[in-house]
Design goal:
Two copies of one chain form a homodimer. In chain A, 53% of the residues lie in helices and 11% in strands. Chain A is of the alpha/beta class. In chain A, the strands form two sheets. In chain A, strands 3-2-1-6-7-8 form a six-stranded parallel beta sheet, with helices on both faces. Chain A has a two-stranded antiparallel ribbon with strand order 4-5. Chain A starts with a helix and ends in a 5-residue tail after the last helix.
């Protein structure tokens, strides 16, 4: 990315969105992301644009519900991919520290270089924040049933044995495979129509840094889990978009 | 992009979309695109997903209208950026040949390297297709009023003097500046809510390779321009999306 692209004017109406984009671009330059990560980020931007680039009420409710289930869990884990680490690595370390649970790095296009860059980045942030969060994923010793190749690799004391998993920006196959293992899967995804969104136990339709920031505020309140109708939450997000695009051009 | 990412299974339900994505990734690897091009492509993918990844009826009407106006124009030009060239360079050369008009390369983040790669790519395709389409943009000698820096650079015998311009995937500022010059601006944009879409004389809400392929069929029929209500076309696209997302989750 050249210098011209790095200049973002604070007065720009989409300044926050452009700063979030810059984090992804910077992480790409550091070797933390596959090329497809940029495209995935763009897809998210489009849905966020349709949502108004803010946390809608149903998403805040879903964030509270997910926080409650993480607090209640016997063995929670945060499963992070490259984009989640690039966008909110620091916030997720804080959440893992609040919950006293590990983070497991799990990336779709696994290469030793990319895993090394992501592990190094989280360890650097751990030190910077004065935290001691356990970072898993580097030495997988178990498999998620039904997933071929490196995507199925996980750690026994992390994802494999967890009862409740937070999966920001998960791919659909992995989400389904984790659900099939009987786990509670808490999804963060800006696309309410994705397979992950549809299959998740609780789906938060919101941008990952906003979710993580909200969750840091909510967890200390120790919220109670409720009967959760995830389809209601997904339709609420779609209805929000629908309202925005109805009768726009007369 | 590693080899694993390049494998696309033809049976995948989104095979066409993944093949289109691969064209962008390949062009990126050849130095034809800014990093932001990947993100822009992802945004487009999200809107295409909401449209059903096909040409909706209102988009086909808009394509016919744009073709009619290009046929009618005294001095038409196709203004192409990196993504448009990566996705449908060959098709746009065919259209320029049908219309006997030039192509002008005009990119947001202009560097000599990227301009060179794009000029070279189009010249290679020109030869491959046995065409002799004039390719402008390499030696700008005029300016679009109201645009600062390299974004305002253009050629007098191309964009500057044209009465009708096809602008696939244009940025909002440039679209507005071209309209302010009194030109007919024919926009191709998957986001019906973008500034370009809203300001265009005729906006085609469709994926750029599908539009170019349709246009090649339509131009020889020499369609007639009509009274065109662009807001109707934009709302039709939004209504199509709205129908798709209403009552999805009961």
């Amino acid at each position: 990315m050249n210098n011209e692209e790095n200049l973002v004017d604070e007065s720009h109406p989409r300044y926050q969105s452009l700063m979030i984009r810059k984090k992804v671009a910077d992480a790409g330059a550091k070797g933390m992301l596959a090329d497809s990560a940029m495209i995935a980020h763009g897809r998210g931007e489009a849905f966020d644009y349709l949502l108004g680039e803010r946390t809608i009420p149903s998403a805040l409710e879903a964030t509270k519900e997910a926080a409650a289930r993480l607090v209640r869990a016997r063995k929670p884990v945060l499963s992070l991919n490259g984009n989640a680490i690039a966008l909110a690595g620091q916030e997720f370390l804080t959440i893992a520290s609040q919950l006293d649970c590990p983070i497991e790095i799990n990336i779709f296009y696994r290469t030793p270089e990319r895993m090394g860059a992501l592990l190094g980045h989280l360890k650097m942030l751990n030190t910077k924040l004065g935290l001691d969060v356990e970072i898993l994923g580097g030495v997988p010793d178990a498999r998620i049933p039904g997933l071929e190749g490196p995507r199925g690799a996980c750690q026994s004391n992390g994802i494999f044995e967890a009862d409740t998993i937070l999966v920001p920006l998960e791919d659909g196959d992995r989400c389904e495979a984790l659900i099939a293992m009987g786990k509670e899967v808490l999804v963060i995804d800006l696309n309410p129509l994705s397979r992950s969104s549809g299959r998740g136990t609780v789906t938060i339709v919101d941008e990952v840094t906003r979710v993580a920031t909200n969750m840091i505020q909510i967890i200390p309140q120790r919220p109670q889990a409720t009967e959760w109708n995830n389809n209601h939450a997904l339709q609420a997000a779609l209805n929000h978009i629908s309202t925005k695009i109805t009768n726009r051009f007369q």
